[in-house]
Every structure is written in C-alpha cells, then in structure tokens.
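Input for the complex:
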Amino acid sequence: MLIGHQPKDFLLAVSGLTVSFDGFKAVNDLSFYVEDNEIRVIIGPNGAGKTTVLDLICGKTKATSGSIQFRGQELTKLRENEIVQAGVGRKFQTPSVFEDLTVFENLEISFPRGRTVFGSLTFQRDATVKERVEEVAEMIFLKDRLHTYADQLSHGQKQWLEIGMLLIQDPDLLMLDEPVAGMSVSERAKTAELLNRIIKGRSVLVIEHDMKFVEDIAHKVTVLHQGQILSEGTMEHVKNDPKVIEVYLGH
Amino acid sequence: MFGDYSLSDLGAIFAMQGFAGLILFSVYVLMALGLAIIFGQMGVINMAHGEFMILGAYVTWMTSNGFQQYLPSLFPGYFFLAMILAFIASGALGMLVEWALIRHLYKRPLDTLLATWGLSLILQQAYRSLFGAREVGVELPEWMMGSWQATDAIQIPINGMFVMGLTVLITIVVAYLLFWSRWGRQVRAVVQNRVMAGAVGINTEKVDRYTFGLGCGIAGIAGSAFTMIGSTGPTAGQLYIVDTFLVVVFGGAASLVGTIASAFTISQAQSTMEFFLSGSMAKVLTLLAIVAILMMRPQGLFALKVRK
Amino acid sequence: MIINSRFFNRTELIGFVALALLLFVILPLSLDIFRLNLVAKYLTYAFVGIGLVLCWGYGGILSLGQGVFFGLGGYCMAMYLKLEASSVENTKIQSTPGIPDFMDWNQLTQLPFFWKPFHSFPITLIAIMLVPGIFAFIIGAAMFKRRVGGVYFAIITQAIAAIMTILIVGQQGYTGGINGITDLRTLHGWDIRTDHAKFILYFVEVVLLFACIIAAQFIRLTKLGRILVAMREQEDRVRFSGYSVANFKIFAFCAAAIFAAIGGAMFTLEVGFMSPSFVGIVPSIEMVIYTAVGGRMSIFGAVWGSLLVNFAKTSLSESFPQLWLFGLGALFIAVVLAFPNGLSGIWQDYVQPHIDRLLASRKSKPGNGFPVTDGAPAE
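Predicted:
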C-alpha cells in the first residue's frame, strides 16, 4: 500500500469535489472516503448527482475543482484509460457490452494485458487467458455461452457479462451503477449472489435504488441530495436520520 | 507587399475587396442557412445540397428566358417570381428526397452522407442531360446592372447590393421561422427529444419532411441569387459544398448566429487574401486555417445536438 | 478455442483461392495486355479498399480523404520516375537541363529541396510509405486525441482532400499542376512502357496486393482487430477497459493511409503518370463506394468491389457516358439503403447458405478435408 495523503490510508479519498455544468453544481464540495475491502452504497433521489460522482471518479467527466485520491494517486489529472490501469473499474447503468463480439471475446478484451496498440497486435490467446476467461464466465453464469455473440444475450445476461468484464480487469475499486435495474426477480437474486462473491478482496462503490438489495450488501451508506452529502453511516443510522426520511425514504 | 500602393489606394482596395467578400459572404450565408437547418437541426449530412442550389439557379434561368420570350414588358420584375419558383422547386424535390431516402437513414449519419452523394451525382447528370454541359448565364434586368460610385476610387455593383439585401431578408425570415413560429418550436422539440415530441402530439415525420424541404428550398433561393453574380453549370454546386460544410461546422452546427459569423470570417479572410496572393493560395490558407482551428477547438465550435 | 484459430476460415479460404486463381491465372491468360493493364489500374484501388475495410468497416472511421494518401504514394513514385526521365541528356533543349520539364516551363532554375531525396530509389520506396503514414499520423493524432470523430472527421478529411488538390494545381512549378507529372519512362533504368514491362508490373502488383490482404487479415485476427470492432460499437466501454481509444484509431487510419499509398505508387507505375484528378474529393469518395459495394466488412469484398465497379465504369462510360453517373449514383444509394454489407453481404446471406447445404448433403464428416493454412496468429 502506498502512502496516502489522509491520516488513515484510505483506498479512495474524495475531497472538496465540485463540478458545475453551466453554473449548475451537480456535485457540490463533496468529500467522502472509502476504505480497503469496504462496500459503499450511494443512494439518493433522482438528480442527486450519484452517477455524476462515478463519472468524475472514472474520468468521464472532468471536475471543476477538488481532488480524488486513489492509493495516493491524483485521479483528476489522468485520462480514462489510465484510471482503469490504476485499478478502478466502472460498470455503466445500461449494459454496455460489445454486441458484435462473442462472450469470450468480450471478456478477453478486458483481460489486463496487451493494452497498447503494439501489445494488442502481439497479444497471444494463451492458456492463462483462456483459463481466466472460463473461470470468470463460470462466475457470471455464462460458461456454456462463451461463443455466443453478445447481441443474443438477454438484458440480465448482458449485465452479468459487463460485471464479468470488470471482474477480469481485477480492479481494486469496483464501481457499479444500478447493477440490478431492469432484472427479473430470479436474475436479481443471482446477481446479489454474484456480487457477494466478487466483492471479496476489493472495495466496491454501488449506486442502487433497491433498498432490500442495499441492506443486503452495504457496509456503509452515503445519501446524496442535490450534489451534497445528506447523511452517512450504517444502513440503520441512515434509515433513522430525520433528514433522510424527509427527502428520500419518507415519501 | 503594400509598398506599391498609396494609402488611399489601399483604403479603396480594402473597401472593394471587403465588398467582394460581402458578396461571397452572402452566397455562403444563403447556402449555409439551408445546410445549418438540415445538419444542425436534423443531424443529416446532405451532400446534394449544392445540387438543390443549382436547381434553383436553373429555375431562375428558365423563368428569365420565359419572360424574355412571352412577357418582355414584365422582364424587369421576373426575378421575384423566379425566386419563389426556385424555392418551390427545390423545396418540393427536398421533400420527395426526404420521403424516399433520408427518413430511412436517420440513425446512420455517415450513410446519409454517402447516399446523398449518390443523389448529387444523379442530379448533376440530370442537369447535364436536360440543360447541357455548358454553363448558362442569366440576363439581368437593366436596373440591376451598373454600379454605384461611392467615391472616386470605390465602385459598388448594384447586383451585389441586391444579393446582400436579399440575404439579410431571408436570414430574418429563417430566424423568425425557427425561433418564433409554432413550426420552429416543433422542430426544436423534435431535435431535443423525439419520443417525447411524438408523445405530446407533434407529427415528427411531418416536421422532419418540412424541415428538410425548407432547408432545400432556401438552397434553391441561394441558387437563384447566385445567378445574379455568376453563371451556372451542372457541377457548380459541388464547388461550394465543402466550403459550406466548413462554414456550418466552424460556426457550431446548431447555431444560426454562429453560422453567420463564421461565413463572415471565412469570406472576408479569403477575399482579402485573394488580392495579395493567388486565388488558389488564398483558398488553401483559408481552408487550412479552418481545419487547424477545428482541430484545436472542436469542443467549443461543435455545440451540436445530434439525434440519438 | 475454435473461433479465430485459423488464419482463414473455410469461406475465406475459398475466397482467397478463387481470387488468387482469377488474378494469377485466369485474367493473365484470357486478357490482352491492354485489358490486363486496365485490370492492374482497377486493382490499385483495391489497396485503398483494404485500408478502408480496416479503418471504416472495422473501426467505424469514415475517411473521405483517402485520395490524399493514394496521391502522396503516387506522387512519391512519380517524382522518382520523373527525375530519372529528366536526365541532363534527355532535357538538354531546356533552359535549365536536368530538371523536370514542367519546372523549366515555370521558370524554375533548380530542383526544389523536397525533390532531391527522390533521386534515390530506396529512399523513394521508404517515402512512399512514410510520407502518407506520417501525414495520417499528424491528422489522426490531432483529431482523435481531441475526440473528433464521425461526420466531423469525414468532413474534415474531405476538406483536406480539397486543400491538397488546390495546392497541387496551384503550385505547378513544384508539382506539375493540373496535368500532373507525366511522361514517365524508366524505373531504375527499366523501361516501364513496354508490353512486357506491363505484364511484369501486373504480377508485381498482384503479389503486393496479396501481401496486403494477408497483412490486413493478420491485423483483423489479432486482438487489435477485435478492439476496432469493439470501439465502433461502444467507444466508452473500450476506454473504460483500459485502452487509449485514440491510439487505436490513429493506428487504423495510418494503416489505411499506407495501404492507399502503396496502391497510389502502383498506379503511377501501371498508368505512367500521376495527376491531381486522383487526389481530390471526387476520387476519394469513389474509393469509398468501391469498398461499400464490395462490402465494408470484407477484405476480399474490397478487391471485388474495386474490380467490378471500375469495370462497369469503363464499359458504361465507353458506350453510354451519360448513363455512368446515373448508374454510379444509383449504386451509392442502393448499397447504402438496401445492402449495407455490399456484395459480400449478399453472398453471405443468399449464396453461402445454398453452398453450405450442398456441401452438408454431400459430406458425412463435416469440417474435414479442407486444407487449412497454418500459423494462426491469434492462437
């Protein structure tokens, strides 16, 4: 572990983060800290800036001010692909997989080797790659569909595939944007099981609306409201916070 | 390079080059307006835009011939009728093309580019077969000929002033249509959210068709104006299409003001340089400057909402 | 793994063999040297097409400026040939002997500096690939690093094609102007105008073409080829899988430029001159249509497209010059509207199933008995 700037060695330290779109502050002076092996769930009403926070961490949106330290490295100065290489993985809200490629190829592209132009020209599909792809495919319930093109998969299967693509990257911080949205009940249960298995040994940042799901997995919950933190703590603490009840859980 | 000219000569040169630039500016604006509507509002790349313009020019040419032959007494005013006919002809063809071709390709902008290029080839050959390969010129009514002697050294051609006046008028009409009319609101609603616009009862297909038709119709008027200052041939439209696209892109595709500002900058730069350099080098330098600026500042100038 | 474990799958192998038979055996045996030379001219566009398959079909980057790279390659070759044809002895009637004739006509008295390296044949060969490659790199780096793509990239490349043409036409003392560089005679002392030379050049070109096909197929089968496809669909997902999307686009664009340049250089050799009419907007977009007709996703399709469209162009414009533009225009529209994957798509959808059925009914052991080239790069 590298030396962090914070008194305690946090994996992720977000401090004073602000982004404004044409004067509208979608995220306003936000600070929070995620520890190693912590599962943090971000909840909040629509438009609270949850997805924007993930966009800022992964580099999709550039911050107006503030800092994001990941293992002591400043992420706001890095390009998206460098942030991924630093160990941050991101799953989008709508499943984004490569539909013209097979499940195997989707996973293979995410395998963290040969990421330069030259590296990808000389990339060999050797035993390590195959084993790892098959291992992950098994975890995401797609072992028997390795050679199916991704456009043939159901919505839930695409979500799993994208989770699998993150898994194979082996990130230290995994960010999931509504991983169970749009899933059937049985798919939802399977996904919870999947997430519970893959969160071991890494930190996870999840945005989710499904309260049952949040209660199942969260170590700590952060409630966002209008780009700022409304409340933070255990699920029990947050649930009983009158401010939260007023803006979010109450109605 | 200024050494050979006296100060007052230079002043006159700049004034007249500036005016030549204003005529070029008018043509750019007229062509770019139609393109900006189609590209900026609909996200469609219409490579046949130049050919819609040339259609307007041919319609004007035919009207002028018709008046000369059958109504010589009304000849001085033929141009006003010709412009209306040009608008109708190009607009109607535009709506036909939208129905037959463009509406199938809204989700594939690169493919509209190729398909409309094919259309432009067909139109060019059609013009060649119908009107011959040679360029045709329109005879101007007497009141449009000659020039206005502003000072001893500065002469300003009347047809040029007429075209400029026309440009101002059409720009105002388009701005009115787009920003203050019911139709303009519908167009902008469809651009921003197609599904929602449909849900609140806007006939999105009809809006698309009329928008495309209007863009093409304005190109027809541009062609009509074009005959006042130059001759028309089957491939004349192609000469302008890349320049016009650059004008639109440079100005920020969805912005009317941006389009006009960029047409002004580009035409003035080009015509001023043209006096001191050869015409081709002036053009090369202008285009290079645009491309370089676009490479450096794409985000600021590309304020475009593309259909998703 | 079964997928991608062979260099060519069965269909591609049939395509490869069929094309090799046609180009190496059938056409040279059945055509006179004039027609064979025409085929050679058509095939120079196939090089451009192969590049476009990688860049546009796979990578989704539509360049409307491939004529620029075709021209750069062609002009590099033409400069070398022109210098050889402008020896002091050949040009002694000029006021400045030893420089190309058009320079003399334009009152130039010495060779411009950028012509000087082209006295050397090895440098010329390097320049044919390097000059367009570097140019493409500069354009690509400037645009892709700033995330300019799609229609903007297409329009800007088209503007570059326009600039290039105006520049070549305008600077006639340095470039030969609108007429181009003409009256080319010998390559390293070997007369390229004879029938025998044209015959040899045809085979040189076909060998080069197959080398390019194999190179493109190699690229397609590596992980880079799959990243191009991935990028076309979900650029952000590629970025968030840890790849620098811009670098991959630059690579595809440069590769396409170099393929086009090789085609251009061969064009100069086959036809004996190079002029701005092969550089500008119109030829550039025609090159795109050859690729689209053949099938933007198929390397072999690009070759067939170049051959067939040009063949149609020659025969139609010989007999019905007016019809040709109508035909070409209609072809553009039809391919875009009805057959986005071109001839190769039609083949795959309508012809291939019949062949498969025929083969399946004849054979009891499927997937057997077909010779397969070894040395798969992806395995």
